[in-house]
Each structure stands twice: as C-alpha cells, then as structure tokens.
Amino acid sequence: MSQVPIPTPHNSAGAGDFAKTVLMPGDPLRAKYIAETYLEHPRQVNGVRNMLGYTGTYKGKEISVMGSGMGIPSIGIYSYELFHFYDVDNIIRIGSAGGFQDNLNVMDIVIAMGACTNSNYAAQFGLPGTFAPIADYGLMNRAIEIAKAQGTDVVVGNILSSDVFYNPDSSVNDKWKSMGVLAVEMETAALYMNAAKAGKHALCILTVSDHLYSSEELSAEQRQTGFGKMMEIALELA
Predict the structure, then answer these.
(1) pLDDT at 227
(2) pTM (predicted TM-score)
(3) DSSP secondary structure code for residue 48 in this structure
(4) What is the pLDDT of residue 2?
(5) Between the CA of residue 26 and those of 60, 157, 182, 208, 230, what are the distances in Å?
(6) What does the pLDDT read at residue 216?
(7) Is 210 marked active-site?
(8) Using alpha carbons only, what angle is made at residue 186 by residues 90 and 178, rounded to the nearest 5 degrees?
C-alpha cells in the first residue's frame, strides 16, 4: 500500500493500530463501554476530539472499536480514513434507530440490507444516476446466521439515513413508512458508499431506541449500555 498521511487530523493512531475489523457506534462513550466490557486487553489508539478508539481481542481475534460521531459527514470522514489510510477491511456500524413500521418495537434489532438517504453524499462520485447503498452480503448473511445461533430475532430490510433530525415537514415519516422503510438513522448510507468505492466491506446493525409512531423510547444511559445483543452479533463477525 502506498504511503498514507497517518496520523490524520482526526485520528492519532499509527500504522497497524487498527484491526482489520472495526465496530463503529456513533457514541464514543459506547465505544469505550464495548472495549472495557467485551475486549481482552483493550488499548486506546485514538482520542482526537474525544472520538475514542480501541483495539483488543475478542475470543482470541483482534478487533477494534471506534466512535463515528453523528451524521453522514462525520462517519464519512472516519470510515474513509479507516478504509484508505489504516487498511481496515470491514466496518460494522452498531447504532440506534427510530422505528417506522408497526411490527417493530423498542430494543428490536434491524440489519440494514439497504440505506435510502436524503443526503447529497453520492454527488461526489459523479455517477450518471442514483446509487443504491447496500450492505456487504457476506457480512450480512453471517450476521443473520449468528443471530439465529444466539436465539436473537432480527428484522432485515431497508432503512433511511437522514441528514435532517428536526424536520418541519411532518409528512416525511409517513412517506418513508409507506415504502416499507423500517427505521431511520443518520450514518449508514455514507458508510455503504465509502465501502463500495474503496472495495471494502460494511454492515449496519441497529437497535430500535425509539418509535416514531408510539411513545416508546430508551434513556441516554440505556442507549449507551443496553445494546448487548446487537454488540454480541457484531463481535462474532470479527
């Protein structure tokens, strides 16, 4: 691999500090929790802007975990650098989402087969049409099989990666719901596009933290520490 600019302005890790597989929650404190709870001999490899990153082992396999921050621009930067500068092969986003469909409940696990978006992120690639960001099939298939073996139910389908959190148009959720979109979050489409362009692999596993059509929602602490089933599926993918 040609010389690359590391450490970067956003990542103080050196060459070889990241494993080939990186789990990427949005919240850096969730990354810290995962490292301290699940990894053997974790060591911190990044702390720039408090975007905490760690590398350790899980069942003898090296694995890293690092926060992505909120939104497509943030995960766009961190995933690009991991794929291109740190020679990472697999990024597995583990995050929270707001449910759309009536058959979803808080704490249900969604595997994102595809990611719709209202973002203009794909414009940088100059494509003569609309790109459909999708998961890596191998990672997705393995995640589904791991969930089955663990006795964990998952829902697989399309999600929305939105650039807008507070939307003045109250009809938008109804429109996405009518197209069968399962849930909304803010990062996956960029991750899938970056992986496609780099020839690497990406998957998003989400836990429903609130439902847009009911009053169900988790607290901030539950979001940080209560996603064990999702984390365990992702860890087994290393």
Answers:
(1) 86
(2) 0.95
(3) G
(4) 46
(5) 25, 21, 19, 14, 14
(6) 75
(7) yes
(8) 110
| Length of the chain counted residue by residue | 238
Q: Tell me whether the omega of the peptide bond preceding residue 168 falls within 30 degrees of 0, making it cis.
A: no
Alpha-carbon distance 89 to 66, whole Å?
Answer: 15
Residues of the chain scoring pLDDT < 70: 1-4, 223-226
From the candidates 87, 89, 163, 210, give the one annotated as an active-site residue. Answer: 210
pLDDT of 63:
98
Q: Is 25 exposed, middle or buried (0-12, 13-18, 19+ CB in 10 A)?
A: buried
Burial 211-236 (b: 16+ CB within 10 A, else e): bbeeeeebeeeebbebbebbbebbbb
- Pairs from 214-220 (Cβ < 8 Å, separation ≥ 24): 216/105, 216/106, 217/106, 218/96, 218/106, 218/107
Give DSSP secondary structure letters for 121-181. GGGGGT-SS----B--HHHHHHHHHHHHHHT--EEEEEEEE-S-SS-S-TTHHHHHHHTT-
Which H or E element spans position 54?
strand 53-58
